[in-house]
């Protein structure tokens, strides 16, 4: 295992005034990072501060917007204070019970985290130690408790290791202050090159509204969500949880449609008939309304529905309607896999429409 600072001292010559992350890495992660294309990049902060941290009744602290935000707005960028291995494989001492072994592993992790935390700059250490800890009664040491309460799952730093989606926990000064909602209005994206998170609004947010974040998959039932939230030591009281029966039915509908609402299905529809597509468009529009009603714009199904609707309108030769969906797709900046070049379709008079291989294709049948 390695302790390292990111960006390292060589990079810091370039970005000397920037915050750094202390890391407790598996072998190979540091090298993987150094070899990433474009690494290192500076941390680019938004020009305007759009949030403040305040006390929230029953939730500890939380983030609130200080101005009206639009879907896709960048709220903040942040390099984590700490990025650390979630767990380390340890040989089990003979005669240790499961409980003893678990405690032994937690203690071992605590000692490793201590080394990483002691490497932090004083202001970073102070911010880290001030974070919430809901693991004070389960054998976790104080640092493990802070990491387990505040860590965002981070993968992609162990090339060749199968299932590397959440090998690391990343603890942030501000993002880790976000409270959970099952209808979150923000999501974050991690950029390896700048080694930082960017937090985006996934829908319009009013001035003074609480900024919320999904701690786990929010597309599932209320019961499953409460189960997944148990380690955080609170019971969620968001609208989707308090009106669980109605919300569960809508989320189940969204999840079921997710499996079939693919662009390839639409393409299959084209071979069928205009009529099929017409009906399908109505169904997709209804699904989009459900997603918005449930506040699930953070899920990739939102993109699928918008993209499908844009395509259907292009295929029908309806540039004005297509451009309205292109404008919304253009704002989905929080998922690098989904972001695309929708700018060319923003103007309904753009020549990109006529150049599109499916433009008015339906009407030529
Ligand atoms: C990552 S921290 C969030 C920031 C935290 N509220 C603070 O004071 O720093 C996670 C902890 O915040 C609290 N929390 C987060 N979301 C909550 C919610 N929706 N309702 C009540 N408490 C919540 C829980 O105590 C949880 O363990």
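^ structure tokens above, recovered residues below v
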């Amino acid at each position: 295992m390695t302790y390292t600072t990111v960006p390292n001292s060589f990079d810091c010559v370039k970005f000397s005034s920037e915050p750094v992350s202390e890391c407790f890495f598996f072998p190979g992660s540091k090298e993987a990072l150094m070899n990433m294309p474009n690494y290192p990049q500076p941390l680019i902060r938004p020009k305007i501060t759009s949030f403040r941290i305040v006390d929230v009744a029953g939730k500890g602290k939380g983030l609130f917007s200080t101005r009206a935000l639009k879907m896709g707005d960048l709220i903040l960028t942040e390099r984590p204070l700490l990025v650390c291995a979630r767990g380390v494989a340890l040989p089990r001492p003979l005669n240790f019970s499961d409980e003893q072994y678990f405690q032994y592993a937690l203690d071992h992790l605590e000692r490793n985290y201590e080394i990483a935390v002691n490497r932090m700059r004083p202001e970073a250490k102070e911010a880290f130690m001030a974070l919430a800890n809901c693991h004070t009664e389960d054998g976790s040491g104080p640092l493990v408790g802070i990491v387990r309460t505040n860590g965002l799952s981070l993968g992609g730093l162990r090339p060749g290791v199968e299932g590397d989606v959440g090998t690391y926990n990343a603890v942030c000064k501000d993002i880790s202050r976000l409270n959970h909602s099952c209808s979150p209005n923000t999501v974050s994206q991690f950029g390896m090159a700048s080694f930082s998170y960017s937090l985006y609004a996934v829908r319009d947010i009013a001035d003074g509204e609480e900024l919320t974040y999904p701690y786990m998959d929010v597309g599932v039932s209320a019961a499953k969500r409460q189960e997944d939230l148990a380690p955080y030591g609170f019971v969620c009281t968001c609208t989707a949880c308090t009106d669980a029966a109605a919300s569960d039915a809508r989320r189940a509908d969204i999840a079921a449609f997710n499996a079939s609402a693919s662009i390839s299905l639409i393409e299959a529809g084209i071979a069928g008939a205009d009529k099929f597509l017409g009906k399908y468009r109505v169904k997709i529009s209804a699904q989009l309304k459900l997603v918005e009603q449930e506040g699930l714009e953070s899920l990739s199904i939102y993109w699928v529905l918008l993209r499908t609707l844009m395509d259907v309108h292009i295929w029908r030769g309806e540039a004005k309607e297509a451009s309205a969906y292109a404008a919304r797709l253009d704002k989905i900046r929080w998922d690098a896999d989904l972001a695309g070049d929708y700018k060319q379709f923003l103007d309904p008079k753009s020549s990109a429409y006529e150049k599109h291989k499916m433009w008015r294709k339906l009407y030529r049948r």
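The chain has a mean pLDDT of 91.
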